[in-house]
Design goal:
Elements (H helix, E strand, L loop, with lengths): L1 E3 L6 E3 L18 H14 L1 H14 L1 H14 L1 H14 L1 H14 L1 H14 L1 H25 L6 H8 L6 H8 L3 H16 L1
Antiparallel strand pairs: 1-2
Helix pairs in contact: 9-10
């Protein structure tokens, strides 16, 4: 079945018209394309008015909006996390600049938030500090024992392996400095290319 749009005058399939139980035939008289064009034009012409209306709605219904957002995030946690990660990767410089600007403009607020966090999590932070102290001692002892030691074929294989580990992670795994592992990787690649 088909119907003629009252706006553009074209005859189109019924699927091209929005449903509307109050109208004869159960469909709107203007097609989806004309409705879309009307909304787009209206929003362009009334952008400030619509922004003000949205702002007022959000202020008057703050709890309802917050609850709706929270429910959406809970139901779509993976999708939201993926979107945020992709957005950050595509806009890394812009996001860094935004965060830097926020910290500069809200220095006192940020300091207060950090102070409060440190007070509330003092035990956890002290525990983490002790663990890092032990790890640093072990690492420095291991580095001292390996300093200047030649690389084994197994270490070279790990350095060249494309296993998803960063150079930093490989350096920790091998008990070597980041700089020495990075230089060794460059050396091994240069040797392989010749």
């Amino acid at each position: 079945m088909s119907k003629t749009c009252t706006k553009c005058g074209e005859t189109k399939s019924l699927d091209d018209f929005h449903r509307d139980k109050t109208r004869a035939g159960g469909r709107r008289s203007d097609c989806k394309e004309c409705v879309r064009e009307y909304k787009r034009r209206y929003l362009e012409e009334n952008r400030d008015k619509e922004r003000e209306r949205n702002r007022r709605y959000h202020e008057e219904n703050r709890d309802k909006v917050r609850e709706r957002k929270h429910r959406y995030y809970e139901e779509n946690r993976g999708k939201v996390r993926e979107y945020k990660h992709r957005y950050y990767e595509e806009n890394r410089d812009k996001e860094r600049e935004r965060k830097h600007r926020y910290c500069e403009e809200n220095r006192d607020k940020v300091r207060e938030c950090q102070r409060r966090y440190h007070e509330e999590n003092r035990d956890i932070l002290n525990q983490g500090s002790k663990i890092r102290q032990v790890q640093n001692t072990r690492t420095s002892n291991l580095l001292a024992s390996k300093k200047g030691a030649p690389y084994s074929p197994e270490e070279d294989a790990l350095i060249l392996a494309d296993n998803g580990m960063t150079i930093y992670q490989k350096a920790i795994e091998l008990g070597r400095t980041y700089h020495s592992v990075r230089m060794r990787k460059q050396h091994l690649r240069a040797r392989a290319n010749h």
